[in-house]
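Researcher: Good morning. I'm working through a list of sequences from a screen, and I'd like to move beyond sequence-only analysis. For each chain I'm collecting a predicted structure so we can compare shapes side by side. This is the next one on the list. No need for commentary yet; just the structure.
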Amino acid sequence: MRQLYLAATGQNRGKTTASLGLVDGFIKRGYVTGFMKPVGQRTVMEEGTTADEDAVLMRTVFALPEPYEVMSPVHIPRGFTKAYIAGEVVEDLGTRIRRAHDVFHHHDVLLIEGTGHAGVGAVIGLSNAVVATALGAPAVIVSEGGVGRPIDEIVLNAALFERHGVPVAGAIVNKVDVAAQPGIRTVLERGLAPYGIPLLGVLPVRPILSNPTLEMIEEGLDGELLHPGPDLERVIDGVSIGAMEPGHVLERVTPGTLVIVPGDREDVITTVTTAHLAGSPDASAIGLVLTSGYRPAPAILDAIRSADLFATLVTADTYEVASEIHDLLVKTHPADREKIELIKELVSENLDVDRILEVATEATEGPDARSEGHMQQGIRNQ
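Model: Good morning. Structure tokens for this chain:
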């Protein structure tokens, strides 16, 4: 079995995007492919068990047969870190990960997805660097667009992997504005070359990969749909919070903007609705999320429907809703069919999957004495 440990330089850098595209590429080449996320921070309940949401995504999209206990063996729920530091967690979590890893030894390829940057998980002795060491997998580091920042971040994360003896097989830079920077790939290659880190590919920025549809907003917020608008499949272009004078709100509204506003701010709701009805090209919102459970007066609701604006009513406050929508902006969900197909196409066209397969290294048939001690050694070192 060949394997790779896909890490990142931070949250929301594009690890899930790369994972989806690479697993798709491996499967299309006829390889029996496995996916594993050893340590998960964002979990959901699926089939009666807790699993990391990326494991759920991969298992659903590719119909992978392994159970969630294997694909997602360790989770860090709220309060877990304090319990671990207080000595209340007595289970050997490293052993749980190794046993799950053993299940994949008859696969052709295993993609192991980390959590955040190289040091995430160090507080419980399971940093990405420690886990990659114990599983004997080389790291590929994902960063995002720019020049100086991705190089700085990749080099910094590579240093921790190398300290733990993990070979850094290369880097992928995501969300690159290729049109504005036509020579960026060469620049990044040269910037990483002094550190011996090959650039394995560049993924161009695509708005749909960062922005959800109105339907995803509705499902994610679990609100009361007051009006669907003309097209629930419409991708939002941005978010604005209506917590100011109505005229100032309009200054922050552009075509495709979703406005988050308390349901009792009828002045803001009326202003946004009127601008939409007037066909104002520069201040025409795509819809409204009405927060705090305040239902506008019937006349206001009638105006929203007349304007054919998307509108949903939620009980959460504005801050909480904005945070939830931010999560939707950066995550890929199994229901995002159009987005998933675009990701597969994007990776196929812009990453050399065969080259990435070449940097994957062969795993042993089982953890040897050296790897058995890596996670516990990692706890002491970190």
